[in-house]
Amino acid sequence: MNTITRIAVFLMISLVTVNVQGQEKKIDSTSVAEISYEIEILQKEKQKIEAEEREALKKEISAINRRLDQKEITAAQAEELKKEAAKKRAANIENRLAIIDNKIALLVRNKDNKVGNNNYGDSFVIRIGGSEDHSDSFIYLGKRSDDKPRIYDRRTTTDVVFAIGFNNTLIDGQSIDDSPYKLGGSGFVELGYAWKTRVFDNSNFLRLKYGFSIHWNKLDIKDNNYFVNNDGDITLEEFPLDLKKAKFRTTNLVFPLHFEFGPSEKIERDTYFRYSTRKKFKMGLGGYAGINLAHRQKLKYSEDGNREKDKQRGGFNVNEFIYGLSGYVAFGDTAVYVKYDLNPLFKDQAIEQNTISVGLRFDMD
User: Residue range 344-354: average pLDDT?
Assistant: First the structure.
């Protein structure tokens, strides 16, 4: 075990020990008033459960009525489906209220000795892994009171977006093989945050995926060329010395929007239900719009035996408004990802060229 690992293990053990000791002190100092307050919260939770199940039943009945109106089912079948839905929701209410009642009974039973109940006050907790009684977050650090129960129907989820791959440009009248940029040395990286929202109440086939990302697009210029700004006209010209490297990079802030299609699995529990797309086929089609944050050209060369490095920031008349099309096809957690800027790279250029990127994307839950 290396030094870093030992330190990490020591810190984790210390945190857990502090958490346990803190909880024990809270148990000893728990008052009857605090227990009464927790019981009051649990009673309100019972009312919330009944309201949630009634609302869910109302949606199910509406869906059944729509099927009846569209003549997908008969009146007798609709009546039977409504009875089954009402029976299921009644059972859900009964089971969920029983859990709350058991918690209340446990608090009441132990209120005199103040030991053995689940009220640890507002101590700091570390939880790794979800549970049916807690939120959907896998890792939680914070106050116990903020570790909320799971939302019954969570229509929106979040993901960190990360993508990486090859980058180049499409030039009018020229194939990609004749590109002035190296295919292997030109690349892109995307990092961002995305929300995914289910569109329909009773189906997860269509989702909206939206958020914000930073795009870093790099072009590795070949044939000893570099970009030159001739009175606003951006052209590639031969460098007067032997170039070791000539790279041009843009940094863009964009706001993507995709329509995502694909099957999913419905997971139903007593206190919540979810649609899971793990290990499922997914396809996303959409686009993005945003702004250019920065751009620069980096040159490395030798002059009189000395290694020189020039970094030219700005001044290349890059388009400030970025917009384009993008899409992905995934199976499981990884997607093949393509994005194409509809705006030309430069405002004024001798030959119009648009950035295209192909790579892998890793936010497919």
Answer: 84
pLDDT of residue 144: 59
Residues 274 and 328 in one domain: yes
Q: Per-residue pLDDT for 319 more than 90?
A: yes
Tell which residue, 258, 221, 254, has the closest CA to residue 337: 258
**Whole domain around residue 329: which residue ranges?**
156-361
Do 57 and 81 belong together in one domain? yes
